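Sequence and fold:
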Amino acid sequence: MQQQSPTLPPGRDAFTVDEFATRWNVSPRTVERAIARGEIKVRRIGRLVRIPAKEVRRLLGGAS
């Protein structure tokens, strides 16, 4: 059985690290490491970290 590529839910403009990790079946620590390496661009609001939908689309190769 082939796994489908995840898509963005309609109406979402950003994801938390935990939401991103859960949706794309990776650990939150993996996402945090990718952010630290600059592989995932985020928006920081105080201590909050959000991954913009635009960045998720880029990571998915332009898919929405």
Summary: Residues 14-59 form one domain. The longest strand covers residues 48-52. The chain has a mean pLDDT of 87.
